[in-house]
């Protein structure tokens, strides 16, 4: 314990807070931990992960690293688009009065998949490689914005069981990853 010096004419640095008051409230057991992410939380988390991968691709210097990030981006997006189409979009069509928003999402997936196919057949250093990854990232950015700002809020309002859908999305993703690992 530090003793106070008698020469302290300056303003006191610490007024000696009461011990109990310094203890921060524990937040460890808040309900956040136990909450199961629903379909929207799950998909939004995937969106953030892919955005990070695009950022890493852009800052990567070596062709090896670029290729690694591009492979991950293509794999993640293939799985993400497939599980959305299989598990989220069909009940979304039924739940929404106007399902044009889902039609649009499917068409956006198709054009993303076309670009993904091209990127998978290329290597860093090939003509247009970086440009194709860039255009894919812009395309995905636009698509994600529409999902998060239009489709997902409408789904929340529709009363659809998003927790059950979240479970199915997770299970299907695991299944697809296992199938891909077997093929390798
Ligand atoms: Fe999507
Ligand atoms: Fe999505």
User: Would you identify the CATH architecture?
Assistant: Up-down Bundle
Can you give the helix content as a percent range? over 70%
Total count of helical runs of at least 4 residues? 6
CATH fold field value: Four Helix Bundle (Hemerythrin (Met), subunit A)
The CATH H-level superfamily is nmb1532 protein domain like
Beta-strand percent range: under 5%
Number of strands: 0
What sort of overall outline do the alpha carbons produce when their principal axes are compared?
A: globular
Small-molecule components bound = fe (ii) ion
Count of distinct structural domains = 1
The low-confidence parts are 1-34
What integer is the average pLDDT? Answer: 86
**Straight-line N-to-C gap:** 63 Å
Q: List the secondary-structure elements in sequence, H or E.
A: HHHHHH
* Rg over alpha carbons: 24 Å
Structural class: mainly alpha
* Level-1 CATH class name: Mainly Alpha
Specify the biggest β-sheet: none
């Amino acid at each position: 314990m530090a003793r106070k010096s008698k020469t302290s004419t300056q303003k006191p640095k610490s007024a000696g807070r009461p011990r109990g008051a310094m203890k921060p409230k524990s937040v460890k057991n808040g309900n956040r931990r136990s909450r199961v992410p629903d379909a929207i939380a799950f998909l939004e988390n995937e969106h953030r992960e892919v955005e990070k991968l695009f950022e890493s691709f852009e800052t990567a210097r070596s062709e090896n690293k670029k290729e690694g990030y591009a492979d991950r981006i293509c794999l993640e997006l293939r799985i993400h688009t497939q599980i959305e189409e299989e598990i989220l979009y069909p009940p979304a069509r039924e739940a929404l009065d106007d399902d044009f928003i889902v039609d649009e999402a499917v068409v956006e997936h198709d054009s993303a998949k076309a670009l993904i196919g091209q990127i998978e057949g290329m290597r860093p250093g090939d003509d247009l490689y970086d440009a194709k990854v860039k255009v894919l990232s812009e395309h995905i950015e636009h698509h994600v914005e529409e999902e998060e700002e239009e489709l997902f809020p409408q789904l929340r309002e529709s009363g659809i069981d998003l927790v059950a859908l979240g479970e199915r999305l997770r299970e299907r993703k695991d299944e697809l990853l296992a199938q891909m690992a077997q093929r390798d």
